[in-house]
Amino acid sequence: MPVQHGNDEVAPPGVNINVPHSARIYDYWLGGKDNFAVDRAVGEAMIQAIPGMRYMAGENRKFVHRAARDLVAQEGIRQFLDIGTGIPTRPNLHEIAQELEPEARVVYVDNDPIVLVHARALMISKPEGRSEYISADIRDPESILSDKTLRDTLDFGKPVGLTLIAILMLLADEDDPWGKVAELRDALPSGSCLAITHPTADFNPVEVGEAVAAATGAGMTLVARDRSAVARFFGDWELLEPGIVPVSGWRPDEAVASPEAAYYWAGVARKP
User: Can you give the pTM of this predicted structure?
Assistant: First the structure.
């Protein structure tokens, strides 16, 4: 984790503290301490553009909890593949799933060494289930799908819950994110489910445009997509009710006065 000596920050091996990373920016928004000056600078610039950014990050976390609960309780999902995990924030996905089904299994995937440090310490499974972490990138689905730890943990003969939370925004159109997701979908058996959240400019083009400019100005890729572009990620899978909606409005635990205050689309779909 980050260590500070005076004004100097020291990172774990393999971490470049001069380049912002989405997982650490997200950690900053959620009030975490596993971030560096470069991450905080970009995070603050994006907050200047979107004052509700911290609220939006929180709404994404709440969606993960609701979706995980429903996939276990209503869809019978007992194993998850979470790509773009980010720095762990309790409760983690496996904790939510194992609260309902202690034997649930989860494989987390990310490409930031800091996430790896925390994953080993915090993603501890119930003894009946299993929680594992692999270092890989969504830009290379085959490296994820062929990973030995993944194959030893998940049974691809049974439905899998694939979660892609605020990760597809990091792939430019020329990276063919739809093709990457299709490769992941095709590897999963019937009855599997896909949960996605994705930032959009549909609700506030000005604020989102300024936030994207702040991120890209710092050398990051950040793409906000409209509802139709997000819908393409689900392919021909059957969308669960209520469909693709603002993230705060997907099966909320309580009434939400302004679902569009969080500028994300969210949806869950089932493979026929």
Answer: 0.91
